[in-house]
Fold:
Amino acid sequence: MTTENKTNLIEFSVEGFSDLPQLQFPLFLTFLSLYLIISFTNLTVFSSIILYSHLHTPMYIFLCNLSVIDMSFSSTILPKLLAMVFTQHKTISFLGCMIQMYFFMAFTCTELFLLAAMAYDRYVAICHPLHYCVLMSPNLCSQLVIEVWIGGFLEPIMHTVLIANLSYCSSHHIDHFFCDISPLLKLSCSDTFIIEIWTYIFGTLIAMSTFIFTFISYVFIISTILNIQTATGRHKAFSTCVSHMTCVIVFYGSIICLYIRPTSTYSPGQDKFFALLYAILIPVLNPPIYTLKNKDFKRVFKQLIFY
Structure:
């Protein structure tokens, strides 16, 4: 029997967070609440942008796509995690594991590209407001959105193919709460050197390049804000930028700590913590951070509530 046929028969067991019976209901309730919050808030943002034509501008189109990504992000992990906590049947098929890993990586890459596009949009709007309609035309906005999704879903294909063809001949126990690259490489008895090099190269290329581009964009934005004459204007602009930058730094920092490092340094507890940050906390924080201080959204929310 070939290695591929063997791997197709594997059913992985997943560690999750705790086997203590008294903790299962609190864990289930916590993750269910987080999933409902993520789904409701991001769906509200998405629906508002779709329904109200005055929000059909590049900034809100990017935000609409971010809401879709955040909902999809959490949906690749939380439903399966909730089922495992509720039933205590903590297993996932080999095919299901590969699908979960692929889509999680795809949505991660898509969000990295989208954050860079959003940073460029804000840079043009704040630093070159008079040329905004030319530099960020509807055609360019549509092109960027298409490229973001295509690039995000193409990048993980090779990772998934390489990991799917590894041999898992010892333990099939994933010490994590979902199928991720590091715990799967740790389980394999095959030589993972090529996959690790591939991860370093593309992880560094994508994560670091998009982060540097985003960071430089915000440097120019902050520099422009400092030249605003009124203290009130500066404070308002800074408060928004700091909120956005906090989400960006947590997202990028978590990804860099998780993936741009040797598999030998894999630490289950640390990896679960960082994965929770960017897979669950960020989708919870993004909607309020990007909308609560936004006048257009305040007006839309009032219309939704009172009409």
Strands lie at 11-14, 91-93, 173-174. The first strand starts at residue 11 and ends at 14.
